[in-house]
Amino acid sequence: MKEINEIKLKTSIKRWIIIFIVFLILSGVTAFPIETELSFLVNRSSSFPLFMQNWLATIYTAVKETNANFPHLSYGTDWLAFAHIVIATAFIGPLKDPVKNIWVIQFGMIACIMIFPLALIAGPIRHIPFFWQMIDCSFGVFGTIPLYVCYKKIKVLETLNK
């Protein structure tokens, strides 16, 4: 019976970690085609509230003009995407041995929490609208959820292994 519970726990932990890895990578690689994505959103923005339409149009214009005149600046968002992929690889450790590598889960939760002060401090300094700061903060919320579930399950797994 203990072995069945342990297998179920490990399977559940792995699923949650894989979900986190996939979404972390997806949120990162979306930084590569940022101009294309913004163009897509602007062309379909009529369903958004006017303040969002205006914000998207402003950002699209800025990115488009920057890419046309200073394409090397987009190299920064390429590194942002790469960083997401690199961070995602750290979660391979907990996939292999969740109890031994629980620190990676803790690191991930801390990183997700750190999104809040960054968004709420740097956002106003960079003139980012509050609604967009909240979208950024949502990454912290949605990242913390699967990691916290994993953390709790790993703690249970740890007690089963004692």
List keywords for this structure.
elongated, 162 residues, mainly alpha, 7 helices
Describe the structure.
With 162 residues, the protein is mainly α. The protein has one domain. It is built from seven helices and no strands. α1 packs antiparallel against α4 and α1 packs antiparallel against α7. The mean pLDDT is 95.
The structural class is: mainly alpha
Query: Roughly how much helix do the residues carry, as a percent range?
Result: over 70%
Number of helices: 7
Mean pLDDT: 95
The amount of beta strand, in percent, is under 5%
Largest sheet: none
Q: Give me the count of strands.
A: 0
Which runs of at least 5 residues are low in confidence (pLDDT < 50)?
none
Globally, the shape reads: elongated
Through-space gap between termini: 15 Å
Number of domains: 1
Q: Rg to the nearest angstrom?
A: 19 Å
List SSEs in N-to-C order: HHHHHHH
